[in-house]
Amino acid sequence: MTIKEIKELLDLFSTTDVAELEVQRGENRVRLVRAGTQLTHVVPASAPAPMAAPIAAPAPAPAVADNTTTVKSPIVGTYYDAPSPDAPAFVKVGDSVEAGQVLCIIESMKLMNEIEAEAAGTVVAKLVENGRPVEYGEALFSVKPR
Fold it and tell me: What is the pTM of this model?
């Protein structure tokens, strides 16, 4: 994303009543958030990437039973289902989990963030592939409570 494109986004954002705007092209992301009368903008410190075709929306998560709870990503980052490449996964489909048990790791800004089960139950579905980027609020697991 070029500086010119970012300036155009800022100009457009300042002339509307939109409270939040996020645009991503490849690895580059710009997020604008209106806080009261102040405008905050965040631009990653990465080199501009060549213009690419628009990115398709992620595929919807597979349907799961209604009596399950969904564990969602609390942050943007890269999903890992094990503590290291040669280690076994924290959990597999069918495993029983306890509240506070680590389900996966999401790497964000070079920090490894453990995502824990909120309640005891059984893992019904793993909704993300290992090593794939995840968004805030994206479904990671489906867990049937005990």
Answer: 0.55
